[in-house]
Amino acid sequence: MYESNRKKAIRMVACAVAATTMLSVTAMAQYGGSAGAAAAAANTFGKNYHVSFDRPEAWGLKYFASSSLLAGLPVTEPSEGHRVGSFNIGVELGSMPDLDAGQLRIGFNGKAPQDLNKAPIFARPVVRIGLPWKLTLIAAAPPPFHIFGVTTHLLAFGVERPIVERKQWTISGRGYGQVGSVKGAFSCSDSAWQSAPGSPDNPTSCLARSQDDAKLRYAGAEVQVAYRIPSMPKLIPHVAAGGNLIDGVFQTEALVVKGLDHTRLWTRGGTFDTTAGITYLVTKHAAFTVDMFYSPLWVTRTPGGPTTNDGLFNVRALLSYTLR
């Protein structure tokens, strides 16, 4: 019996060692093979923090949420006017200006740089469908591919309708929103974790590439004004102004010296934006639109310091075609 118990004990120890080894290998594979992965798997920490809307972390969330606002870029109705069941498809491109060293320092209330200069452009297909009562349904979503170091899962949607229609003038209203998130290595890039923990290039002491998740949710409304130039009927200048409620969340998932960081930051607040641009009617069914977009974004970069405007200005373009 003693021999039998000893064999059972040996088998139990062997199983425990094998299970521990498998968990360690899995953790190291998930977090880039870091030597500290096993420790992180055993020590997960993080809290849920609300940050004020003018803190640097909140500025980063509202900056990138603003870059995806379903604002401006009106697509003109076909020559026969609004039709129920009409289907228009387009491709929207927006520039993403590079952030400087000061703008990148948004972690820990402006103390730690984040890897935010990922994609140089924001691209998404846009679909518009004619509904009854002169309503138009709008849906836009970037492809959910891993590109430029990020994976985007965003869906923007809205409904618009003309409020006033004259021979040359059209005033329209639009309500819109967005759900979803963008995933990437924001808090700890490859260049950061390969530097010594605690060094200027790795102030968060991370040990592997992070897998962070930024939720860029919003709801908003805007008013658009378009004017058809009688002498140049193919050119339609337009302006728009809107207000937004941005609900942003940054979920950290980073392997650091202390363990696996699951800190969650959330913020909520209002912004407004303006756009101005021009549409060129290429054919009866095709149109090309270019807009300049601006949204002032207020931020306090250092605790106790002044609150300044560090807004988003970019250029957006939309090529659209009405199928029916």
**Structural classification:** alpha+beta
CATH class: Mainly Beta
Strand content: over 45%
Shape: elongated
The share of residues in helices is 10-25%
Can you tell me the CATH topology? Lipocalin
Q: What characterizes the major β-sheet? A: 10 strands, antiparallel, barrel
How many separate domains? 1
Distance between the termini: 84 Å
The succession of helices and strands, N to C, reads HHEEHEHEEEEEEEHEEEEEEEEE
Q: Please tally the β strands and state the result.
A: 19
Uncertain regions spanning at least 5 consecutive residues: 1-10, 12-41
Arithmetic mean pLDDT: 86
* Rg, nearest Å: 25 Å
Helix count, DSSP H or I runs of 4 or more residues: 5
The CATH architecture assignment turns out to be: Beta Barrel
Strand order of the largest sheet: 3-6-7-9-10-11-12-15-16-19
What do these coordinates show?
The chain has helices spanning 2-30, 37-42, 56-67, 101-104, 190-193; strands at 44-45, 48-50, 87-95, 105-107, 112-113, 121-130, 136-140, 146-147, 150-165, 169-184, 212-227, 235-251, 254-256, 259-261, 264-281, 286-295, 298-300, 307-309, 312-322. It has 324 residues and is an alpha+beta fold. A ten-stranded antiparallel barrel has the order 3-6-7-9-10-11-12-15-16-19.
What labels describe this entry?
324 residues; alpha+beta; Lipocalin; elongated
